[in-house]
Design a protein that fits this description.
Blueprint lengths: L12 H32 L2 H28 L2 H22 L2 H4 L4 H33 L5 H29 L1 H20 L16 H14 L1 H16 L6 H8 L3 H25 L6 H21 L3 H29 L5 H30 L1 H22 L1 H4 L4 H10 L1
Main location: membrane
Keywords: Cell membrane, Membrane, Transmembrane, Transmembrane helix, Transport
Subcellular location: Cell membrane
Length: 422
């Protein structure tokens, strides 16, 4: 029944609590990011400053990723996630203070900007722990046979929060301003902390507690590079996200090209997540584990087409539809990639494998934001977005041609084996 029940994972109480934690946290995180993007561009009017936001986050996230994975595999997951959330609340509080005239009234624009970058840098450090901890915690809450279903609902929750967070961020900027929007975000982060405490502590499944760091990291990296399904999924998504990072330039499109203001900015920012969320709801009823490799390649190709259309459009509704369909293709990609990682990764290595994934895929979001900012500065905003979409198309076609084993990847047998184990 678990293979056909679209609500299998939702019948587990702690998984529902986990989803609530993730929703509140991602809602606040995505809302905070869009508010900071708006504030930084309003201060500088320079698209490169938006790229620097991504760079400030990727440097610590990338350099700390492997070490963070080692720590996650060595520690209890619930408490580690609680520690990360508590630290993140300090970042939200700091950003709130940086937009308070009574605190920064005498500060120069450059000082405020550098202070924002510093907090974003600290956030990147925390991010290196968030991904592996969440990935590992999910596997301790649900049985292996329903990993694909759990991945669908987990990703859907992330996307729903990503829909509402940016939309409310744009509206709140208009309604109550940047300062009080950040106050709301601080409250949401604290709420997620207290909800998380409703989940019980989990056992540590790593049999090599106290293993030397270098040996631990080597083992994690070796596993990823010898597991072709994981390596292929990570590489394909990394390059697509790296060159398809048009989202980072949305403040430029909203303010200077489409001229739709902060509310239009919020709607545009939410459009990809709406498309992805709707797609993920469909995958809960229609499993996509069969022919997963070919479906992932097709999804990345479709994503590239949508990015090109968005870059060329100067009409709001066309841009909105392009972003919506980019989200639909990205939703398919995300569910397939998460299912591959959950199924192919042993329990004792989830932290390290997730960390390598964050280096490939997660960090490429911020690196892609920096790439978009630099190319927009050099080529112009529209040309930069079209270039990124074209590179994404080339990546999808090349992967399909040079890697027949990945193109033929099918996860059905793996799921049947986990069914027998459970």
């Amino acid at each position: 029944m678990a293979k056909t029940d679209p609500y299998a994972a939702l019948r587990i109480k702690e998984f529902n609590i986990f989803l609530l934690v993730r929703f509140v946290l991602v809602f606040g995180w995505s809302m905070q990011f869009i508010v900071i993007e708006w504030q930084v561009y309003s201060l500088t009017k320079d698209p490169l400053s938006l790229g620097i936001i991504g760079l400030m986050e990727i440097i610590p996230a990338f350099t700390m990723a492997l070490f963070a994975g080692h720590i996650v595999d060595q520690k209890e997951k619930r408490n580690l996630l609680a520690t990360c959330i508590a630290a993140f609340s300090l970042i939200s509080l700091g950003l709130f203070l940086l937009t308070w005239d009574e605190v920064v009234g005498d500060w120069t624009t450059k000082t405020i900007l550098y202070s924002i970058y510093a907090l974003v840098f600290f956030g990147g450090f925390l991010r290196s722990f968030f991904g592996p901890t969440i990935f590992s915690l999910v596997a301790l809450i649900v049985p292996k046979k329903i990993y694909p279903n759990a991945a669908t609902w987990n990703s859907s929750t992330w996307q729903m929060a990503s829909v509402l967070g940016p939309a409310f961020g744009g509206f709140f900027i208009s309604w109550i301003g940047v300062h009080w929007s950040l106050c709301i975000i601080f409250g949401l982060v604290l709420l997620s902390f207290f909800i998380l405490l409703q989940i019980k502590r989990k056992p540590i499944l790593n049999p090599k507690i106290g293993e030397p760091v270098i040996e631990s990291l080597k083992e994690g990296v070796r596993f990823v590079f010898k597991t072709k399904a994981i390596l292929g999924a990570m590489t394909l998504d990394m390059i697509a996200v790296l060159f398809g990072g048009a989202i980072a330039l949305l403040p430029v499109f909203a303010q200077d090209i489409l001229k739709v203001g902060s509310e239009g900015f919020g709607v545009l920012r939410a459009a990809p997540a709406v498309g992805a969320f709707l797609t993920m709801l469909v995958t809960a009823y229609i499993p996509i584990s069969k022919n997963a490799g070919m479906k992932l390649i097709a999804a990345v190709f479709g994503f590239g087409v949508c990015i090109i259309v968005f870059g060329l459009s100067s009409v709001f509704w066309i841009s909105l539809l392009a972003l919506f369909f980019s989200g639909m293709t990205d939703g398919v990609s995300m569910v397939i990639r998460q299912t591959i990682l959950q199924i192919k990764t042993p329990d004792h290595m989830r932290g390290r494998v997730s960390s390598v994934n964050s280096m490939f895929v997660g960090s490429s979001n911020e690196l892609g934001a920096f790439e978009s900012g630099v190319t927009a500065k050099l080529m112009g905003t529209v040309t930069a977005v079209v270039f990124g979409g074209t590179m994404t198309l080339i990546t999808a076609v090349t992967t399909g041609l040079v890697s027949p084993s990945f193109r033929k990847l099918d996860l059905t047998k793996d799921l049947e084996e986990h069914e027998k184990e459970d």
